[in-house]
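Closing statement on the 26W sub-project.
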Amino acid sequence: MTDRATVDTLKREFQEALFGALGRFPAGATRNDLYISLSLVARWRVMTRWVATSETYYERASRTVCYLSAEFLLGPHLGNNLLNLGLQEEARQAMAELGHDLDAILDQEEEPGLGNGGLGRLAACYMDSLATLEIPSLGYGIRYEFGIFDQLIHDGWQVEKTDKWLALGNPWEIPRPEIAMNVGFGGHTEAGTDEQGRYQVRWVPERVVRGIAYDTPICGYRNGTANLLRLWKAEAVDSFDFTAFNQGDYWGAVDQKVDSENITKVLYPNDELVKGRQLRLEQQHFFVSCSLQDMIRIFMQKGGADLRHMHEKYAVQLNDTHPALGVAELMRLLVDVHGMGWEDAWEVTRNTFAYTNHTLLPEALEKWPVEMFGACLPRHLEIVYEINRRFLDEVRGRYPGDGRRAARLSLIDETGGRSVRMAHLASVGSRRINGVAALHTELLKTSVLRDFHELWPEKFVNVTNGVTPRRFLALANPRLASLITEAIGDAWPKDLEELRRLEPLAGDAAFGERWRKVKRDNKADLAAIVEARAGVVCDPDSLFDVQVKRIHEYKRQHLNVLHVIALWQRFRREPGVAAPPRTVLFGGKAAPGYRMAKLMIKLVHSVAEVVNADPDTRDRLRVAFIPDYNVKNCMPIFPAADLSEQISTAGKEASGTGNMKFAMNGALTIGTLDGANVEIREAVGPENFFLFGLTVQEIERLSADGYRPRDLYETDPALRDVLDALADGTFSLGDTSLFRPMVDSLLGDDPWMLLADFRSYVDCQTEVGRAYLDRDHWTRLSILNTARIGRFSSDRSIADYCRDIWRVERVPIEVEEPSAGLSPRSTQRAPRPERIPS
Ligand code: 26W
């Protein structure tokens, strides 16, 4: 049911864009031309919303959320925007009538990979929900020229390739060269007094870099809102230094330009391990300073605004500690630049920020050596010291004589070389501190931030993560989306609790049949992709058992592989065993410097090669690694999964969000009591979730009592067979050294407790197999998982943030549209292009 008039309008606008923006005749257009043209058509409509939105926010001076994040993993825009604008079918029809395939055009879009994993994708889901819930908001981040690397696989090993995502142009960004901020680095400070005799510090930076704003509109689902994501690109202050040139130092001048531009060149591809790299500190300061200066500029636009009320205008969220320098930078801007007194400035600052923690892993907690910090940001170091001095005075007042506690709370870690603890800076400078799942928040309060919790219990709140059902259900799984809409109507994309109305259908045989058919079709689609990209043929009727996420020891992809090996050995030993055929799929990137993670990728390939080639088992077990897992490539994966692997060591995964994307698409979960798994299990019902493994408390007890993995190796014959096969070269053409580091780690101290959970995991997988053999039973559980996943929509998370942390309200936007487009007949007020003869 497409609207004829809209299809015609889209066709005309598309041809106009191809002509007027790209200068192409239809037959000469490349696929990229088609993609850019269609994007411009969609963008025009987004712009109508954007202009109306910014005008409304400006007129109403609305309280605004600023989401500061070093990463935004948005995924391709065009498909998502067509969905949100309600133009999917019309666009498909319009393209078809012009002889083009919409899917091929959508596939042309590069992944905007400006993030590593969960944290970056969460920021993108939140931007989507903020716009859908009509919350005045701005995202601020970094416009990396190279995002997360592309992953190639050579001989089973990961090879990284630079991500040139901007090479063919980006129709979604609008450069704003007139919105430019100067950001200083290095140099020294000079103390003095101002005209009124007040103490004042002047920072004389050694180097100044200019940040240029690049804006991307983020539109809500079927409403009038389009919010702004503003990413900063670094440029030299003067792209050419004529003094240097005239003195003949041409290269020196160019060098400085290159140096400046380096700041936003590349995303650091580590997702948990923090290395004290100066360039990363510079990136953080750069984007935070640009963003805060921009907020102040916008605030002052409305004449007479008093910065002492800035916290009433903005709620600034720190996405982990990467933007935590903002606490010191806002103090500097208020005190040094705008002449505010320290106390007033501190009042504004600590009421402006809130901090989200995303990890308990000690190696991921950011710390900067004091020397590096001071060399790069001398004024900020002074400010950090002053904040710390006042803070520790307060601590000593509260806990007289407890010097140890003061040392634990200090912003400066004095153990080893001195360093600045960014989580402490964020905690002291924030009004609220939140974890990302109930369990994670509890653990935060009792471990990493325990002393802060004792000091300020009222600051701590939990906001369990969520994911957007627009991208991860409506867009990713059109078959299931239309089945659901047919059954319960079309309110669910905006109100995911509506899915609960599927519950009564879980026992309906005819509905179950259709549900199963959707899954079967999705599996056939994925099978074709796996064959094309990994060269592995797999059977869509087998159980699709999937683990996709960053590769990390704590996420335990190798535990999954140990099960694959155990299953293979079992099939060989007991050919008659009742178990369904399985396809075990992996995907994910390893940090380039993380050797064990890279070995895990090699392991998957090595096991796949042997297992897939075994004539005795190949009809029952297949293994494949899907290369280059990212937001674009994940779209066909979630809809095709039967089983979702969420098997991290309890207490290590802050939340996980893939777990939610799978369950939304009707996959059942096999998982530990970790992160959001705990709440997912409660929501879908324990009988619809495959639970295994030690709890956080059991893990703590076992470590305290002295964990001896070797004892398990000696007592569990199946485990012994698996590890022996790894060690004896079965999967490495007889090479006994290849997987030695992994076997040694597992039999040594096994820090992630794989062996402790092995038996329970394998038994649980057996149960999964049994459940899958009963098709109707499995289908019922699958429907119930989708029906009960409503609370894991990012709309619920954002509603929680709005209520408990930001205290902001909706501001609905009226737009005149929907017919406004590139066409000269459009009715909106924005400037129109010249009429183009067709
Ligand atoms: C290199 C420094 C660094 C350290 C940590 C970069 C990035 C990180 C992130 C905290 C890693 C990350 O993505 N964390 C994940 O955040 C998700 C969203 O809250 C959670 O669901 C995951 O459990 C958490 O691992």
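The domain at 506-698+756-792 is CATH 3.40.50.2000 (Rossmann fold). With this model delivered, the sub-project is considered complete and its resources will be redirected to Aim 3.
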